[in-house]
Amino acid sequence: MVAPQHGMTVSETRKLDMLSQTFLLVPNFHWIIVEDADKKTDLVANLLSKSGLTYTHLNAATPKDWKLKLDQPQWKKPRGVIQRNAALEWIRQNAPHDAQGVVYFADDDNVYSLELFEEMRSTKKASVWPVGLAGGLLVERPILNADGKVSEWFTLWRPERPFAIDMAGFCISLQLIRDNPKAVFSWEVPRGYQESHILSAVVTKEELEPKADGCTKVLVWHTRTENPKMTQEEMLKKEGKKPSNYNIEV
């Protein structure tokens, strides 16, 4: 499970903490956290050490020119490219050669059903499923043909994409990740093509394995939250007073 983190704010740290409570219920789980930072922070290190999970803590800083500013919309610049690639490199260098499993790119802005993790365990190459509250729709999903194969995508946003799917809507087998070292994310692809870029490197649309009862169930939802407005906290700073989190780790 790969989870890139982008300059941990207070709200993101809390979301990460809540996410860990879900992952605790998933057996045979390895969490790879990649901080968007020049060095690992004590805040994340402490959170992980107390989580009770098997994890790997990495860091990889996004170049300043590519960092998303707080007042910019989420789609303005590609996010998590360097962090996800750092995780993929770690997996290829450290996963036991005979290990079985899947790689899933998690996000702390999502809510996951435990059923999703059981579904993806049977993946042979790459599996797909619907995602709730994605692409400006209630549900963005693969459409299957009479043979139960993915034929197209139910999406209104850039439907021409080879794999018109959300990052939360697929996983790739560990074996395919190991066998295809050039399968990575890229800064150069158009907006919305990160998923297509990596999936195209390892699988064809015909080889995709539909999950979630023939892609009829939603087992993951986007629940994106906005960064909180800290106007009173800023006032404390201007007045030279101690912050509200003085001597408190948040």
Summarize this entry quickly.
The protein has helices at residues 10-23, 42-49, 81-94, 114-120, 174-179, 194-200, 212-215, 231-238; strands spanning 2-5, 30-35, 54-59, 102-103, 110-112, 126-128, 131-132, 139-144, 150-154, 170-173, 209-210, 220-222. With 250 residues, the chain is of the alpha/beta class.
Annotated CATH architecture: Alpha-Beta Complex
- CATH fold field value: Spore Coat Polysaccharide Biosynthesis Protein SpsA, Chain A
Described by the principal axes of the CA atoms, the overall outline is: globular
Major sheet: size, sense and barrel closure? 4 strands, mixed
Query: Radius of gyration in whole Å, from Cα?
Result: 19 Å
How many distinct helices? 8
Helix content range of the residues, please? 25-40%
Strand order of the largest sheet: 4-10-6-11
- Domain tally: 1
CA-CA gap between termini: 24 Å
Mean of residue pLDDT? Answer: 88
The computed structural class is alpha/beta
